[in-house]
Amino acid sequence: MKYKYVSHTAEAAYVAYGKDFSEALENAAEAMFNIMVDLKKIKKEREKLYEMEIIESADDEEQLVWHLLQRIISEADASSIAPVSLEIKSILNSESKFKIACELSYAKDSWNYGLLDIKAVTPHGLKVESKKGKVSISVVVDV
User: Fold this and answer.
1) Predicted pLDDT of residue 81
2) Which domain holds residue 55?
């Protein structure tokens, strides 16, 4: 299971899973995209996808998740794009600083595929956990 949606009183919430932080983060992004746009419709229509490089840095993994997902929301809103997938190219952890480089695949004209507008990733529900060789990322988004 890549991710599951969980109940939340006023927002949308989910938990993403992976064998490592990188995979869990890619799955967390996909879960968010699935709230924002109709991924099945984009894939069914075989819409041409474009790519954008994103580089972010933060002091810890939770801040890195927040910065990356928030950046994607901002890019989607500002450019009217429909995010489809995220591929992490590298994650560096040096001197207590995390840096990520990734590639965002997206379709243009998001209004053709839109479901819900996500306003922001809320920091209060964000959590990264490692247990038994697996990583989970809990996310709450303001819709």
Assistant:
1) 93
2) 3-142
